[in-house]
């Protein structure tokens, strides 16, 4: 008979997610994870099976939290222009600590490239849902005459998603909030009529 778990797995997962976000998958050791969570390696393995499974669960948690924040910010704004601005703000600056850690999804895409199918699937799910949110907002703005109709909503959404991803790389590289904000303001301004 196995012993009952002695720790909060959800809290430990959240803590591990933050370690992976800061150090990346390859840069994170089990010592880093056990030190942060105060949970023994054997116990973490008992719940999450492996470092990779823990990382995948961290990516999923990060994706869910980020999308929930984006959806809340979009819902709080009435105008499609303000919604796009809220998407840009939420994607880059969800909290004061974000600048130093960057985005776990973008960091993982840069760290793994195309070498891991499971990780690429998580990254693709995030990218796909983000693009849907942006495209819906742009389409609404096009219907209202706020955004240009010279290009389709899908093409404009891909362009803005690319600008957001590039801005996240700038963020992780140490660019200032002013520089990053300028990139995104420009991308949104180019879409306006």
Structural class: mainly alpha
Q: What form results from the Cα inertia axes?
A: elongated
Question: Rg, please?
Answer: 19 Å
Content of β-strand: under 5%
User: Could you give the order of the helices and strands?
Assistant: HHHHHHHHHH
* Mean pLDDT over all positions: 91
Give the % helix. over 70%
Measured between the Cα atoms of the first and last residue, the distance is 67 Å
Total beta strand runs = 0
So how many helices? 10
Biggest sheet descriptor: none
Task: Give an overview in words.
The relative contact order is 0.11. The protein has helices spanning 9-23, 30-37, 41-48, 51-75, 80-92, 98-101, 104-112, 117-143, 153-172, 177-191. The mean pLDDT is 91. It is mostly helical and 193 residues long. α5 packs antiparallel against α8. It is elongated and about 60 Å long.
Keywords:
193 residues; mainly alpha; 10 helices
Blueprint of the fold:
Blueprint: H1 9-23, H2 30-37, H3 41-48, H4 51-75, H5 80-92, H6 98-101, H7 104-112, H8 117-143, H9 153-172, H10 177-191
Summarize the structure.
This protein is an all-alpha fold. It has helices at 9-23, 30-37, 41-48, 51-75, 80-92, 98-101, 104-112, 117-143, 153-172, 177-191.
């Amino acid at each position: 008979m196995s012993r009952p778990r002695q720790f909060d797995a959800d809290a430990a997962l959240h803590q591990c997610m933050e370690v992976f976000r800061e150090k990346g998958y390859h840069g994170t050791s089990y010592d880093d994870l056990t030190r942060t969570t105060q949970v023994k390696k054997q116990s973490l393995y008992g719940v999450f099976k492996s470092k990779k499974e823990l990382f995948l669960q961290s990516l999923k948690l990060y994706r869910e939290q980020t999308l929930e924040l984006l959806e809340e910010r979009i819902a709080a704004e009435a105008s499609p222009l303000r919604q796009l601005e809220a998407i840009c703000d939420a994607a880059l600056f969800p909290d004061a600590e974000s600048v130093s850690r960057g985005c776990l999804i973008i960091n993982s895409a840069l760290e793994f490239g195309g070498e891991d199918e499971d990780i690429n699937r998580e990254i693709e799910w995030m990218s796909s849902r983000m693009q849907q949110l942006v495209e819906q907002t742009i389409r609404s703005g096009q219907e209202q005459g706020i955004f240009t109709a010279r290009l389709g909503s899908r093409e404009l959404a891909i362009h803005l998603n690319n600008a957001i991803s590039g801005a996240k790389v700038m963020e992780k590289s140490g660019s200032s909030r002013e520089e990053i904000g300028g990139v995104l303001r420009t991308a949104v301004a180019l879409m306006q009529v």
